[in-house]
Amino acid sequence: MPETPTFVPGPQYDGWLTGVEQIGYGGDYNPEQWPEEVWAEDVRLMNEAGVNLVSLGIFSWALLEPREGEFDFGWLDRVIELLHDGGVRVLLATPTAAPPAWLYAAHPDARVVDRTGTPMGPGGRGLMAPTAPAYRSAALRITTELAQRYGKHPAVVGWHVHNEYGAPVALDYSVHAQRAFREWLRDRYDSLDALNAAWGTAFWGQHYEDWEHVQVPAVAPEAVNPAQQLDFARFSDAALRACFVAERDAVREHSSAPVTTNFMAASCPATDLFAWGKEVDLVSNDHYLQAANPRGYVGLALAADLTRSVAGGKPWLLLEHSTSAVNWQPRNVAKRPGELARNSFAHLGRGADAIMFFQWRASRSGAEKFHSAMLPHAGTDSRVWREVTELGANLGRLTELTGSRVHADVALLWDYESFWAQDLEFRPSQGARHRERVDTYYDRLWRDGHTVDLARPTQDLSGYKLVVAPASYLLTADAAANLTAYVEAGGTLLVSYFSGIVDEHDAVHPGGFLAPLRDALGVRVEEFLPLRADDALTVTYRAGAAGAGAASTDAVPLTGTVWADDLVLAGAEPVGTYADGPKPGGAAITRHRHGAGTGWYVSTSLDVDALATVMADVYAAAGLAPSGTVAGLEVVRRTGDGGTYTVAINHTDGPAKLPLPAPATDLLTGDAVTGDAEVSAGAVRVLRTTTA
């Protein structure tokens, strides 16, 4: 096997392993679930399937340290040597997501406590109280022992710290969290006067005169102070991240291999991945389709785009997805023939340099025995196994994609703190949830063929032709200034309702709703006019007018739900008006020239089809257009030294044509392609075009 190269760790490492030019392929390997005589057969079958990388030891703490301070590494030594001899590289895990029973017994105070005050016992998975000294000490001890023993082993090419921080443990209300929360608040605010001001404690008589009186926001008779809850979300995220950093640093004392942890992008909102992305050497993600959604591949694309964005555009690793059905959803639908490949290539096309699964061999016992695997209960004479081996062979043909990049012209704002704040209690409408608007606008962009970066509202946005803010309820003054400057410089900004409402302390901005974006949008909100659950309204939209700035006679009716605003124009032009609802004749959709750019505001909830009409004009203003490809044909591109790599995925039941700007080579077949490339029903093509 090739010699394992050395690696100098650094933030957001560019490529999944220096000197190894191949797509990583494999999954979680849990050999402790099987008799030792099975292990050699596993490695043989891994070679047959094209597996070159496994995550190892994720839930093995109780076997590695069967009693406090007593270690048994013999079995792990033998597994690693088998994998090494078979040419399979290892991402070695720290097993701290599965604390052993003896740790719970010795330190019952270190259990996670839920919001009602109930301690969470052993028997499942997930870390103990992240701020509990006993858990932290034990976690660092096992991590250090592993790093000392395997830090220079040639098979260990990277480290997989913990497992899915924030799932299932995101918030802890234990005595340890109480103590640490107060310390965190002291560091953040310095004085009780500053805390009282930030939390608006004059309301409901919540003023504090003693730090010891400040509590975690546990269950109370009424809604707990929203600023307090928001700070607790920030604190809890920081506490989890501190656990990762401590383990990462313990590994780095003894190993130069890159360190990662598997995120749950787009499905675990408790962790601010933009902050986490700065702490890992490699950005990694786990993703599972929501089986109830027949268009779950759109959610997959969003998760992949978010992961790439957290990585700053650099390649990333898909550490888990499923070969077929999962076991923890209400209806666990098996993947159709070819869906395993379509899902995998969608992640690859959106920047992943490794495609991995949970897990290698299906478990016979335990909570996930009905979860699909690379080697299913049905064995090697099964459709899943045949698709697994076919995928491994195809990924082996795509070595040249490693390290190539994805470019996006559109940014969609993704702000964890805003999401945490918007979804608290006592908001104007329960229908105004951040994720619904994000998903709807993303789906519209997906259907129109636009690759999207997920962006923070404070980052440099100058490289994007269009920025979409579907749910920016919490918008700081600095973030609003950044968006305004983006418009002034010639950008096109589209903002949806219930945005620009509060500051970082969940306090309404001086000047009222939407005040910080008034210059960019030329409009202010006098009053929210949310609708009843089953009500709808009609917006008369002047289609075609806004794109070119000329009048149009095409008045298109659009249906809105959930929300309306009583808008006061402050320079903006109404391009859509309410035909009915709570404000007939009022402005519903506006556009505003500010500097060299344009700001758009949509004050009601339009579904993905209604958005097509509005977005056509927004695209025109931004110098963009829908791709025009067949509905259901997903097309993404990566660019590298070898040219442009087009990954085309047909999610439909019929063939689709993809126009090509230049002759191409199909990397999966070796065939030359000119003119239109046909993508068969349910199929994938990977096409390379080169430029002179």
UniProtKB/TrEMBL annotation:
Record-annotated Beta-galactosidase C-terminal domain positions: 632-688
Catalytic activity: Hydrolysis of terminal non-reducing beta-D-galactose residues in beta-D-galactosides
Protein keywords: Glycosidase, Hydrolase
The Glycoside hydrolase family 42 N-terminal domain, residue ranges: 28-396
Top-level enzyme category: hydrolase
Enzyme Commission number(s) from the entry: 3.2.1.23
Domain Beta-galactosidase trimerisation: 408-624
Pfam families: Glyco_hydro_42 (PF02449), Glyco_hydro_42C (PF08533), Glyco_hydro_42M (PF08532)
Protein name (database record): Beta-galactosidase
Gene Ontology MF terms: beta-galactosidase activity
